[in-house]
Amino acid sequence: MYRGREGQWAFLLHRISGVAIALYLLLHVLDISLVMLGPDGPFDAFLAFYHNWPFRIGLLMVIAAVVYHALNGLRIILMDFTTWGVKIQRQLWYGVLVLTTLIGIPVLWVVVPQILAGV
Amino acid sequence: MEPIEINVKIKRFNPEADSRPYWSDYTLQARPSDRVLDVMHHIKWEVDGSLAFRRSCAHGICGSDAMLINGVNRLACKVLVKDLGNRIVIEPLRGLEVKKDLIVDMDSFFDSFKAVLPFLINDDAPPPAERLQSPEERARFDETTKCILCAACTTSCPVFWTNGSYIGPAAIVNAHRFIFDSRDKGTAQRIDVLNAGNGLWRCRTAYNCTEACPRDIPVTQAIEEVRRAMLFRGA
User: Fold this and answer.
1) How far is A66 from chain B (nearest CA, A)?
2) ipTM score of complex
């Protein structure tokens, strides 16, 4: 592995989160479209299936991916349009990570007990 | 400084004889103040004459001996043993075809460099004296005059590793040097090249180029400046 610094990891995480969000969206659209098959169709069964804990943990990761991708996207806009954005890109990335974590904590606070309780 | 024992691992490959790359291991004495290039000279001259690498000036000016040293692109003549510790791993630059050991095929790299027309374009009649430029106008592109074409930046770029047709940071740096030169009139021609599918919009700002540059050129900054020039000058 090339020993790049913050910028390389910011790029890699941005790419991975972007691909993950796109794949999730595809699955989500397919899933929601099952409602068109009517009340006797497989929609409810799939909904219950996706309520299993591995998918709920997956959903937490989707939330993390969306928040990171959005915030790092703002970082990229600052870098693209300002001179100072490039100069402080490392600090901006740490800011992105801190904000992603701060937004993640209340989500985990609410959702993890639900998953553990099997709600 | 007293010599210390160091272990050097070098990735070797001779396409005419080997089916795949392999590692050569050397244990030898070196001073902490030795450069990696000194260590490689010692190996080539006294241990294993078959080792192949490029070097010319050996003083960080010619740009011949860029290689992947302990996971980062740098010039073997600018990095000291004491900055690496006693385990040194050397690989050829990534993304370019290996000719032998640490020698890579630089043709595509120089093709990209030539594509941005890295020379002054100005067909106006020459003035009686020189084409005058203020110190401020000269300072505008000072950083990008420092490029030595070692390819450390381009071959550290994750986009270049997966798409060898990407024009790469080094070519964009050299385009920047002329685009922001007040005497130059060739911006439109250069922008045609940079605006193409494998031009500067492929940059994903991973900053490996900026970190790798042995001349401390703010490479990503230069790329962003050219991008903004293309956006806002309506080029």
Assistant:
1) 19
2) 0.91
